[in-house]
Design brief:
alpha/beta, 6-stranded parallel sheet, about 280 residues, about 30% strand, 9 helices, single chain
Length: about 280
């Protein structure tokens, strides 16, 4: 079987999750190739080496630019914060590497267009990781919708409600800073909902209007904005008369990352909810 050497950039939560996937996917699925966990890349040598030792990467590095141009690397898995995606993805594509990218895709339309142009010009395989598409409940929902079992779908509503930063002692991570999180929870959480709407329904959603509630730290004279979309609700323009809402929050007490989807068809009602312990 053909082997493809993988380099992963990012050693934190998503780096661990993707490492587990690369190591175990061939045991469950007929992939047509055998991925080789070649090199783990991080910002500090100790962290990169720890990921390599724990998950079976052959080596580690702190220089992602050098790694993505290595001739022995076939696939670059970018599991870094969103604000780092663009330069890494473009460099990997220009080096002729297949690109596996964690979501959210980009901080702006301009970044997204730049990355897409780079991979299309190079002719490499490219993929954004919207993992909920593979959840069993979502797969079943898609089959029921595609088979016409629930009739014509008229409405879509989704809500992704989290509680993982409720504690005042939670650190100010990149997710919560305007300059690194970009459009905040809308990108990090709402992107799942928009992707599932595109996957499950015939609706093509475009952002229409947003309602968001910023959260500040410090006094009124020296306030620091944490994130422009900790609590947010978006309405999307679709090819039907209603505006499908997408609601996201990181401060919902008692919620352990449930992502709920509701569709209103002509026969009955389609709904599903996911609850994960992904921290």
């Amino acid at each position: 079987m053909k082997t493809l050497n993988v380099a992963i950039i990012g050693t934190k939560f998503m780096g661990k999750a993707h490492s587990n996937a690369w190591a175990n996917a061939p045991r469950f699925f007929e992939m047509g190739i055998r991925p080789v966990l070649k090199v783990a890349v991080g910002t500090d040598a100790a962290g990169a080496q720890q990921l390599a030792d724990t998950w079976g990467w052959e080596e580690s590095s702190t220089d992602w630019r050098a790694v993505v141009t290595r001739p022995d690397i076939d696939i670059v898995d970018i599991s870094t914060p969103t604000y780092l995606h663009c330069d890494m993805a473009v460099a990997a594509a220009e080096a002729g590497k297949h690109v596996f990218l964690e979501k959210p895709f980009a901080l702006s339309v301009e970044q997204a267009e730049r990355m897409l142009a780079a991979v299309e010009k190079s002719g490499v395989v490219h993929y954004v990781n919207h993992n909920y598409r593979r959840a069993p409940a979502v797969r079943l929902a898609k089959r029921l919708i595609d088979d016409g079992f629930i009739g014509r779908l008229f409405h879509w509503r989704s809500a992704y409600l989290q509680d993982w930063i409720v504690s005042p002692s939670f650190p100010l991570t990149w997710h919560l800073r305007q300059e690194t999180a970009g459009y905040g929870a809308h990108g990090d959480l709402g992107s799942h909902s928009v992707d599932l709407a595109r996957y499950l329904t015939p609706f093509h959603l475009l952002p229409q209007r947003f309602r968001r509630q910023p959260l500040y730290l410090g006094s009124s004279s020296s306030r620091e904005i944490i994130c422009s979309a900790l609590l947010a609700k978006a309405f999307y323009k679709a090819d039907f008369p209603l505006e499908p809402p997408v609601e996201v929050i990181r401060l919902r007490l008692g919620q352990d990352e449930p992502l709920g989807r509701h569709g209103q068809p002509t026969r009955g009602r389609a709904a599903s909810s996911s609850s994960t312990s992904a921290r």
